[in-house]
Amino acid sequence: MEKEPLHHPARMQIIRIMGDEGGVSYSDLKEKTGLSTGSIYYHLGVLKDLLERKGSRYALNDDGRKVYQSIMEGRIFDELLPPSKRSSAEELYRGILVASLFERLSRSTRTSVMIGAILLAVEAGTALFLNVNQFLFVFVVTRTFHPAVSMVLSWLVVFLIFYFMVTSFYRRVGEFTENLSFLVSILVSFLPIYLYAYMFQLRLGGILAFISSPTTGALLQFVSAMWIASSLTFIKGVRLEHSMLMALIVIFLNDLPFIAFP
User: Fold this and answer.
1) Pair 108, 202 in one domain
2) What is the CATH number of the domain that holds 71?
3) I need a surface site. Which of 43, 44, 168, 217 has the fewest CB within 10 A?
4) pLDDT at 84 over 60
5) Domains held by the chain: number
6) Do 240 and 146 belong together in one domain?
7) Beta carbons within 10 angstroms of residue 216's beta carbon
8) Shared domain check, 208 and 183
9) Distance in angstroms (rounded) separating the CA atoms of residues 167 and 170
10) Domain enclosing residue 174, as ranges
């Protein structure tokens, strides 16, 4: 068996719990591990080759029981014990994906509500100040909607798109707190495109012209895609490579009409 899935203390803990209990429900796992909903789903996905479902309960399969036995006998624990600190590359990777923020949102409803209220006010106010309509991840100069209304509608539509994708492909409806955290994370992911919209309005010249160029806009859209993908991973528990693909497809389809009919 590949050892890579065990290179995380949470996954070692999950295997021990299942081995000790024989079978556990999702709520039991959440209570015993103290992990967020997204983290549990993510780790269960990584360990899928060692697990089996028995109704609403998770249990170790034959391979999983062999791994559990090896851990309890001390034959692989020392070898697989993860380092106590993340490497600099891992910290940089998590920083780019703002992973710590999304993990905190998934653990605290109060934090989610507070950050969500601030970002909603800032982004709706910015749309009103710039007098532009937001169309998901793109801004258009039109008077179809009130700018603040277009921002709120785009926020809710983006949430519904990814919620539908996760529930359809992964059968994860999610609890209220998890969905609230994901809803707020979408506001976080909008920040790069709002930054570009503001810089575009400045229309800087000379050596600073690149700041408001289409290239910068595309780059900041990609950052938004990374942050959406990160939130799907750290809040919803979707594998990062899958969530990144979903985010890029949605943004590409969003951009396509504006590319085809400039």
Assistant:
1) yes
2) 1.10.10.10
3) 168
4) no
5) 2
6) yes
7) 17
8) yes
9) 5
10) 90-260
- Give me the long-range contacts of 158-167 (CB less than 8 A, separation at least 24): 158/186, 158/228, 158/250, 159/183, 159/186, 161/250, 162/186, 162/228, 162/232, 162/246, 162/250, 165/246, 166/232, 166/236, 166/238
pLDDT of 204 reads 65
Q: SS3 for 27-79, per residue?
A: HHHHHHHCCCHHHHHHHHHHCHHHEEEECCEEEECHHHHHHHHHHHCCCCHHH
Question: Which phi and psi (to 5°) does residue 134 adopt?
Answer: -90, 130
Question: Which of 53, 84, 115 is where one domain is finished?
Answer: 84
Quick check: 6 and 82 in contact, CB under 8 A? no
pLDDT-derived band of residue 59, with 50, 70 and 90 as boundaries?
Answer: confident
The pTM of this model reads 0.74
* Cα–Cα distance for residue pair 81/75, rounded to 1 Å: 12
Domain check: are 131 and 177 in the same one? Answer: yes
Residue 160, judged by CB atoms within 10 A of its CB (0-12, 13-18, 19+), counts as: exposed
Are residues 108 and 214 located together in one domain of the fold? yes
pLDDT on residue 10: 78
